[in-house]
């Protein structure tokens, strides 16, 4: 199995791509191309939430308010989570998180892991049952382990460095269930239905639009982190 844009496979920024029909899904007529562009991160978030097996009444902490983090939080709320708190280091992303359903937000910039944990527990009323890590940096993985309740679940979604230092004794002492997820599996039909039915609303997730021949400029703009997602129109 290969994924476009996951090394060593190139991405799909071209006007035509040949793909086996078994791996293609028809987009409903009422779904825009902008909405369809979120199907990949939506599938990632759905796979993560399924792996977490979020139960009714669970409180969920999502680390990182990028496209995957925001959508994962939205899915957690749309399924069973009673409360969802999301963290980031950019205030404007946390403002968007509030608009799309986050119960609480925390800007962790400059905070120690312990200070962040205390704020998170205060806002949630208790330690989270599930932590979904969508940053991939060592400090975020450490925070996930320190924040989750005893016997809770930590789901690692983001791809970061090959090796990181983690408080492994804390994983053992707290009997944490540590799970890694890679991309997605059998999630696209459900992801399409979530958008089609309106269960997940994407209109508040900001997009910047570029033409295919402006792809280099699009990547440069994306690196600034000023919008949630950059949309490149491969048909233009």
TrEMBL record:
UniProt keyword annotations, A-Z: Metal-binding, NAD, Oxidoreductase, Zinc
Annotated protein name in UniProt: Sorbitol dehydrogenase
Claim: Zinc is one of the keywords in the record: yes
Pfam short name (any one): ADH_zinc_N
Cofactor(s), names only, from the UniProt record: Zn(2+)
Gene3D superfamilies xrefs: Medium-chain alcohol dehydrogenases, catalytic domain, NAD(P)-binding Rossmann-like Domain
Coiled-coil ranges (or none): none
Keyword Transit peptide assigned: no
């Amino acid at each position: 199995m290969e994924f476009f844009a996951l090394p060593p496979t190139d991405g799909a920024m071209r006007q035509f791509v040949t793909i086996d029909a078994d791996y293609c899904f028809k987009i409903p007529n009422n779904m825009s191309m902008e909405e369809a562009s979120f199907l990949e991160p939506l599938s990632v978030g759905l796979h993560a939430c399924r792996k977490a097996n979020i139960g009714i009444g669970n409180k969920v902490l999502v680390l990182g308010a990028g496209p995957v983090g925001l959508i994962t939080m939205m899915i957690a709320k749309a399924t069973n989570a009673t409360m969802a708190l999301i963290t980031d280091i950019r205030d404007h992303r946390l403002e968007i998180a509030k608009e799309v359903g986050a119960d609480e937000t925390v800007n962790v910039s400059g905070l120690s892991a312990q200070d962040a944990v205390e704020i998170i527990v205060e806002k949630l009323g208790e330690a989270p049952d599930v932590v979904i890590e969508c940053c991939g940096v060592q400090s975020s993985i450490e925070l996930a382990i320190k924040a989750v309740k005893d016997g809770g679940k930590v789901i690692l979604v983001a791809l970061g460095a090959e090796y990181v230092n983690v408080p492994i004794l804390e994983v053992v002492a707290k009997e944490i269930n540590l799970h890694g997820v890679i991309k997605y599996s059998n999630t696209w039909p459900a992801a399409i239905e979530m958008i089609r039915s309106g269960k997940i609303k994407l209109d508040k997730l900001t997009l910047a639009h570029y033409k295919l021949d402006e792809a280099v400029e699009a990547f440069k703009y994306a690196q600034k982190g000023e919008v949630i997602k950059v949309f490149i129109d491969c048909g233009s």
